[in-house]
Amino acid sequence: MKPIRTACALCVVALAACGGRQLGDVERYVAELEAGSGPALPPLPEFSQPARAAYQAGSGRSPFEPLALGPVPGAAPSGSGIAPDFSRVRQPLEAFPASALEMVGTVAKDAVRRGLVVDADGGVHEVRAGDYLGQDHGRIRRIGEVAIEFVEILPDGGGGWVERNRSLALAGAVP
Questions:
Q1: Long-range contacts of 159-163 (CB under 8 A, 24+ apart)
Q2: CATH code for the domain of 155
């Protein structure tokens, strides 16, 4: 037991001796840094206070009312009877925005052309005319060799609905 105590005592003394010398080096380095002065920094610019504007409640739109939106650019006026069917069961591709979907090919079954669409998660889906895709109630009208044509139903900002024609081009092709 005595040799272990002696070895520990020697280690403590050796560490204390090393620590004192290293601390002196650090103190000398800090003193050198404090003695040297860095480049002078220019003073901060003075900023002027912006003019205050008084809110006049009667002269403008209430900030608590929604903005009146105009028609969606590139959309045809809805006419009467255009509205999405909220009672139908949603299809898997309606979970993704149309911009996240990509047409990758077509297949023919029973003389009917069907499209192959890849979603944002990498899943491949087989679609046909009448199926829905995208988050704006998009319904497929036609499946061509290089594009899937569909129509979306969007709110017009005034309580009505408008239709917008869209297409998904075959990857690498221009419709």
A1: 160/78, 160/82, 161/78, 161/82, 161/83, 161/84, 162/71, 162/72, 162/75, 162/76, 162/77, 162/78, 162/82, 163/75, 163/76, 163/78, 163/82
A2: 2.30.30.830
- pLDDT tens digit sequence for 10-69: 666 666 666 555 677 888 887 777 777 667 778 889 988 888 877 676 666 777 766 655
Query: Same domain for 85 and 164?
Result: yes
- DSSP category for residue 48: P
Residue 126 lies in a domain: yes
Taking a C-beta distance cutoff of 8 angstroms, is the pair 120, 159 a contact? no
Q: In this structure, is residue 27 part of a structural domain?
A: yes
Q: What is the pLDDT of residues 102-157, one digit of tens each?
A: 999 999 888 889 999 999 898 999 999 999 999 999 999 999 989 999 999 988 77
